[in-house]
Amino acid sequence: MAKVTTSSLLKMKQEGKKFSALTAYDASFAGAFDAEGIEILLVGDSLGMVLQGNEDTLPVTTDEIAYHTRSVRRGIKQSLLIADMPFMSYATPEQAMHNAAILMQAGANMVKLEGGQWLLQTVTMLTERGIPVCAHLGLTPQSVNVFGGFKIQGRDEANAKRILEEAKALQAAGAQLLVLECIPASLAKTITEALTIPVIGIGAGADTDGQILVMHDVLGISSGYIPKFSKNYLAQTGEIRAAVKAFKEEVANGTFPGKEHTFN
Ligand code: KIV
Ligand code: NA
User: Where are the alpha helices (DSSP H) in 2-45?
Assistant: First the structure.
């Protein structure tokens, strides 16, 4: 596999080839995922939950994401590396510029931000200054306290329409990728078809251009609650490399996510 870039992902979308993404937080797992050809690795602020044991992602800091980004960077040969901007690290465009630069200098190829309309100017400013942006809509976990829990988004018509409009606006503002989390499959399909940029789904059905999962869910080591949209690939393969390979293959051939992983 050649180095994955925003242009190679765009080409995959245009050719109808599905790509896969996993979270990664250290050099060893990143190296294994990269070697199995996982196109995108995300240093997600999910690390606040799966590594630190917090109940949500809010306690995570930019310095913590930068630390894990440096580690993951050392494990990568080809995958595109995205770093999450944590809660309140991009509340103003100025804060976003400052903190995104820290993550890029730690080795990220792109940063990911949660939000719609209010972020448009920030997305443009980052992109103009050489920082590619992955947008994130739907169930944006940093807003869990506003949502009143981890709830599916975009179920009513007004909300669905707003998410679609925000997706288009984020693309127009310069976003080069979009993550859709926990929305009905039909809405994710509409958005994926409406946008020229690649769309990555998690709990968003089978029709997005790519799929992302948290590595702990894929390897069945998340304690307690396993989300409906996830799949434990270690259980069916018994070996970490084989589990990653199976995830990639099932995404590429369209068997993951199945109906049982999808919200309607
Ligand atoms: O933090 C994370 O792991 C994420 C993915 C679930 C998309 O944002
Ligand atoms: Na995240």
Answer: 6-14, 27-35
